[in-house]
Model the fold of this input.
Amino acid sequence: MPAAPVPSPLERPHFLGIGGAGMSGIAKILAQRGATVAGSDARESDAVRALRSLGAAVHIGHATEHLAPDASAVVVSSAIRPDNPELAEARRRGLPVVHRSAALAAVMEARRTLAVAGTHGKTTTTSMLAVALGVLDLDPSYAIGGDLKGPGTNAHEGAGEIFVAEADESDRSFHAYAPEVAIILNVELDHHANYASMEEIYESFLTFVDRVRPGGTLVICADHEGARELTRRVRAASDLRVLTYGEAPDADLRLVEVEPRGMASEVTVEWEGQRLSFNLQVPGRHNALNAMAALAAGDAMGVPPKELAIGLGAYTGVGRRLQLKGEARGVRVIDSYAHHPTEMAADLEAVRAGVGEGRVLVVFQPHLFSRTQELGVEMGHALALADASWVLEIYPAREDPIPGVTSELIVQAARGAGAVVTPVASAEEVPGLLAGMTRPGDLVLTMGAGDVTELGPLVLTALER
Done:
């Protein structure tokens, strides 16, 4: 397939927050296509260094002079504040300001697009598809919200015709895409700063479904109540082809069995009257369902499930999604991005199945004041699945504090559910606390969407001492 062009006006783009998971992926693909890429970020990171290795000019910190005189456009995400000096300078010059979603839509335009949406599991499912299609020598392009273990990157400009992308609902970014195949894994109320009710969530997902190209396919879970309701609405309003998957008896692709094998599993499904078994190198029923979504979507793109199942066996994980950080003194340390109660419970159940007689010890960092205000009680209940937990202060990300909303809300809910939970004022205390009380066979899980991920290596170092 001929090389895809650089979309106008992204010949010389300047990315604000270029090191972010979504932004860095688009920047990498544009750099691989030959664009002159530049940008700025708040700090050094692996993503920043990877972009520099591709020839991108990346500045640390935000300042007017970082915006090159010949920049053709500025790319922003919803996290960029209006008073950013580089954004203000771009507006003064009259440069196009392109949202991240529009930039991704532009780079996908020349490909057959497969977009993965849902409240949970997007990164994992997108990654499974990228790996499996690659194993089959289809060389897909992809843009993912995390780094794949094998290639160690979140984006790739492939020579094949398929582009697999994570479609983010948090700020309605996925309304910009027009996929040939859309996956919706689940539908729940989250992102409370942008959605006030489930009705708004349904309306947003319906807008995304309406963007599926004529003759395309929607792949959607038959188990999740929110997804089932969305399916009812889609079928009532259009004649779009819908493929369902899950444990439900009426699912087109039905889950028969998930057999745990330590931190891996064997999955058996039924498809068009035939049974198919395949191995996954990741644990948990939720990962089996993610793999089923990938199978159904692959079939819709013309890739037989039996072939794609072989490729799925090569998937070993993605950064921050039950990622093994290491082992010391017989204690494994795993990192989880889970920050919503449903995700937390799924990951805890998955690691529990693979830990044997050891204990599951969790260090949890709540993410966002608004999410904690709405879901803090449910987060506490999820922590009751661990043997013991330590809860850090809320990671604010882009939000300002909300009076009265602290991690104590989660601690009290967890204790009410019978959990052994301890509040921790400083993350610096955690490695020493864990090193002093773990024993061989235990599993330490750092959990949350903030900088709790940085604790894993520190815990390992403390254990080794």
